[in-house]
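REVIEWER CHECKLIST
Item 1: Sequence provided? yes
Item 2: Single chain? yes
Item 3: Sequence as submitted:
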Amino acid sequence: MGIFRGAWAVVSINFHKWKRDYRVWLIFAFTAVIIVDYLSGYTDYAVAENRSLTGCLLPVLYLPSEISLRAPKMLWHIGFILLLCNAPFMYPVSPYAILRTRRVKWWIGECTYIILAALIFMVFVTLVSILVAAPAMPLAADWGETFHDFVFGTDTHTVQELLERSALSIKVPQKSIMYLNPAACQIYTFFTGWGSFAVLGLLLYLVNLLQKNTVLGLGVTAVFILLDPILTMLAPQYGYWIQVFSPVCWTSVENLHNLRSDYFVSIPFVAVAYPLLIIALIALIAWGSKKVRIEVR
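Item 4: Structure as written out by the authors:
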């Protein structure tokens, strides 16, 4: 129990710093603005046409995209690594915390903080997306009439006519809507989004810890984020197996093998890959925390 108490003390110190860090509040605020901007077109249509809109909008926000500004998941992945850009989180109080908790409890607390921060950020993205859909959200557990209209059209308008009339910032996940359950897609996206944040956060921490250079950690994690649209663009030509090189690719339901036989990413794959990556990164952090001399900036 002493290990958990010591580790939780480190977690508490890191979260306590959020209260006075304007950077944290700005990241959450801009993330909310981006989500509202991307989803408001669907809500506006649903309200104007008296159509229902599902609250399971994470599959929409995490749509795969080629190199484009219309890739919202890239934006909040970048926002999340900026949230942790000061890793390995050295504050004036840190040396005293390390002396009291010892290094084992310290690195356990740091890894726990990153994983919890990833969870909080993912919960925030989920809640904001639900709030955007709230004005037109039905009680029924289906995709809603709004998505049906943009996939199949209506009695009076074709899909193309609806798209021309509506200011949509992001397209409809057509394959998911036709073949998958919205709640299942929401749950899949939530856990893979959490896993992706956790992996990138731990990688950022590891690089910064070993190199004592926050810029390098940001650069390494940014490469994996930017690989997502690049691999999405190259996959049809070189094979969808190349999407394994970016955990951000795994968060898109539309990339799943369940929807197309030549896709590589599958639910069993991500169920094994994310935990293995997280365990491997934590093991490397444990090793690095013993080898690196800790300095307070």
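Item 5: Key structural point noted by reviewer: The chain is about 70% helix and 0% strand.
Item 6: Recommendation: ____
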